[in-house]
Every structure is written in structure tokens, then in C-alpha cells.
Amino acid sequence: MITELSAGFLPLTDSAILIAAKERGFAEAEGIALNLVRETSWANIRDKLAVGQFEISHALAPMPIAANLGLTPFDTRLIAPMALGLGGNAITVSNALLARMQEGSGFSGLDAAVAGRALADVVAEGRSSGEKPLQFGVVHPFSGHNFELRYWLSASGINPDRDIEIVILPPSLMADALASGQIDGYCVGEPWNSVGVARGAGQIITTKSSIWASSPEKVLAVREDWAGENTETLHALLRALYRAAEWCGQSANHFELASLLGSSSYLDQPVEFILPALDGSILGMSAPNEGRDFFQPHARAATFPWQSHALWFYSQMVRCGYVGHSAEHAEMVRKSYRPDIYRAALTGIDVPVPSANSKVEGALRETTAVGASSQFLYLGPDGFFDGTIFDPDGLDAYIARQAD
């Protein structure tokens, strides 16, 4: 018996696991026919999932959290029983802004701290001369892009609400907006940074993996009520997606994966724009070690829905003033990510699953073996570029420090 599932996705490289599950037969092997529907915006994804047009979706990692905190139009509880990889975003600026960053500091390379200092110098100069604030694009208010951009700016001495204007654009419009001079930079997932560079509109100055190594980006989102009513189907889907993630993570498959993603049904972009994010060459020869960790679809428990990831996003929502902090809100956020469902789904197929639901974020400076259900599991490095640590058990104190 085949179960049909409709899944929304945006044309991004980090939709790879869903696409591979369909195209490489992993979903079919679990009795699932995946109908992948390409959408143009995250608002469409959110709304169609909420009203039942999609059973599942490729989703921004903070999206289920925002829904459950009442920050979205529909009163629908969403959960994330699986992550869809680590990393995959970059920050690209116009050639004109890059030239200004290089003038003052000789900035080069892609280190987040160095890039942040160079941008801070430009912002300070512009503020003193009365210039209009720089404009940066992100894809949605409740996105990893928005929160990592704001975190990077703040830690670099730039006030993201006063010194920079942050605007919302769909991923596919970022390169055009940069080329036309409507924005000065953007934070977006691949391949849209590579597209901007290929069009000559700008250059990548840093990456998500440099701001926060091994950091979360997209999740599989489902309605909580649907998950409860379709347990066996959901478990079968998670097994298929896990096998797809394993396949996506093997370097021997990267060219085939890039070809699948590049087809007109999915990203509709040349293979040469997609492959760099998969094989780690996106950053060029100047920073080969950083590029290696740009996007991880499987390694480092990349598909595990860590509740500490959810709580970090929540801390940034509080910091930005989207929601007030309370114990009730924190518990609601914790329950938005469901490692219990992930474990139950993968029991019996002999794959390593973390034994903990949360971890201290930013504590691992090198690859480290951790407790798992079977075999060996390696995590990290997972450091923040400014050296801070996020301990989910110290959530109150972390939020209080950010308000200072």
C-alpha cells in the first residue's frame, strides 16, 4: 500500500533530503509517494501547511516555534520531528559595499569576526556622515537568516535595529535586488549566494557555519494533530529521509545530487551554481577549510531535532522583542522539537541517535564522540564566532545577558 504525501518546499539546496528521498526511491521503499510542491515564499509554505494543503513541509527552523507561540496567522500547532541538515547560508554584499569594507581594514577572507569588524567600520563612518542605513535582506522574520544576521551584527558592535535596515525578500529575488541596488547585502541559503556572485552582483563575505558552526537551518514541519493521527506514516517518512540524508552526505553522490536539484522541477539552476555548497568549494581556494563545513546533510547528527537549537532561536525571538520570556513559553518551545518521535522512528534500523535531547551549544571546539543509541556518533565543532556559550539549562541568565 502506497501513502501519498504532499510536501511544500522552496528552491534551496537545503531541500536536498526531501528531493533525494523522492528521486532516489527512499520514500517509495517505505511505501510513500512524495508529491513535492515548489513554492515562492515561506509564508505560502506556513499557511498551506496550517490549513492542510500540505501534510509535511521543508520549513525554516524557527517556524514551528513561532506558530506555537501564537506569532503566525493560524492557530495551528506545528512540530519538528526531524532537522534537514546543518548550515547552508551565507552573507553576500554588493561590490560597492565590499570595496568600502576593504578600504578601511584590508578585509579579505570569510572569517565572521573579521568581516563583522570591517562592516562595523563602514557603518560607523556612514552614521557619522548622516548616510542612510545599509539595507540587508532576509527571507522571513522567523528565520535562521534573520536571527544569525542580527546575532552577527550585534556581536560585531552593530545595532541591527538602528544601524541597519533589515527587509524581507523571497530567496530567489535576493540576487536581483542586490544587482539593482535595492539592497546592500543579504543573508540567504544556497544557491542564491552563488547566483549573486555568478551574476557579478556581489561577493560572499561570511557564512552561517563561520557565525555558528554546526548550526541548525531547516526542519521537517508537520501539524501536531496530523503526526498523532498518522504515527506509522510519519515514522516511515523519517526513515526514508534519514536514508536520503545518508546518501546526500556521501561525496561520491554530490554531482548526481546537484543535477537532481538543478532540474526545472526543483531549483531550476545550473549544476555549477549548486555543487559548490555540496562539495565545500563555495568559498573558493582562499578558505578551503571553512568550505568543508558549509552544509552538512547527515554528519554530526545533522538530522536530529535538538531542543537546545529550538531554545536558542527562542532566546533570539525574545531578544528581538517578538515575544516575552516566560517558563511557559520556554516549555512550549521545547515541545516544538520532537526528538522522541525521531528516536521512535529510527529504532530498529541500527543508526546512531543521540541519547540526550539538548546539548550545550558552542562548547565543542573539535569533533567529539558522544553517547548514542548504537555505533559511534560524532558532534561538533559547534562554536559561536564570538566565543559565547548557550547552555539551555541557563536560559534565563542567557536571555538576561543579551538584554544588557
From TrEMBL:
<dbReference type="Pfam" id="PF13379">
    <property type="entry name" value="NMT1_2"/>
</dbReference>
<keyword id="KW-0813">Transport</keyword>
<keyword id="KW-0472">Membrane</keyword>
<protein>
    <submittedName>
        <fullName>Nitrate transporter component, nrtA</fullName>
    </submittedName>
</protein>
<dbReference type="InterPro" id="IPR044527">
    <property type="entry name" value="NrtA/CpmA_ABC-bd_dom"/>
</dbReference>
<keyword id="KW-0997">Cell inner membrane</keyword>
<dbReference type="GO" id="GO:0012505">
    <property type="term" value="C:endomembrane system"/>
</dbReference>
<keyword id="KW-1003">Cell membrane</keyword>
